[in-house]
Write a structure and sequence with these properties.
The chain is mainly alpha-helical. The chain is built from nine helices and four strands. Helix content is 58%, strand content 4%. Helix 5 packs parallel to helix 7. The protein is elongated and about 55 Å long.
Length: 189
């Protein structure tokens, strides 16, 4: 019962965001790679603003007005911000170190382990240096490998789910979506 409730919520959520994203033009990140990071340029999963918002929240934690202005300028100059790394920057011991941290993470993606490693440094300067030397540039993030044979099958199944939702047959859509998830999970083992 728990699984069907989750699938129902997922199917309703998919109806709201539009399944046309599955057309292959904006593929989701590979399995195991979070889709909740954000920059200013949009992208699949609505991640366009989350990282920027997290960076601005970090800037708001800076103590002095000059530090806040410097930090906001860094956010405006940067194109992409890893939301988790931006939140980590907001946890600096001294607000004056937040702008440097935000500059260090601009246009980079970090694994959760990298973020924890940097946060484990004793001093803010060491944390900022860790973020500066760590991470991968956004352009070099892992890509989901395309498989045309599976892409067309998955796309057709998702279109069927969308048709069911458009007809108001949420139960059928959830069942089809569950079958598709099982198919994908079996293929990734």
């Amino acid at each position: 019962m728990k699984r069907s409730g989750l699938l129902l919520a997922l199917s309703v959520g998919l109806a709201g965001v539009g399944l046309e994203r599955a057309s292959g033009q904006n593929l989701p990140p590979p399995p195991g790679h979070s889709d909740h990071r954000g920059g200013t340029h949009g992208g699949p999963g609505g991640r366009g603003e989350r990282g920027r918002e997290a960076a601005l929240r970090a800037c708001a934690r800076a103590t002095f007005s000059d530090d806040k202005r410097e930090c906001m300028a860094a956010v405006n100059q940067g194109g992409f911000f890893d939301a988790d790394a931006a939140e980590a920057c907001g946890r600096m011991s001294f607000g004056s170190n937040i702008p440097g941290c935000i500059r260090a993470i601009s246009n980079k993606v970090y694994s959760p382990t990298e973020i924890q490693l940097c946060l484990g440094a004793s001093f803010d300067d060491d944390k900022v240096e860790c973020f500066q030397t760590g991470g991968r540039t956004w352009a070099n993030r892992p890509r989901w490998e395309r498989r045309p044979d599976l892409d067309s099958y998955i796309l057709e199944q998702l279109r069927g789910v969308r048709r069911s939702l458009q007809r108001g047959d949420v139960i059928r859509a959830a069942a089809d979506l569950a079958d598709l998830i099982d198919f994908i999970e079996q293929g990734s083992r």
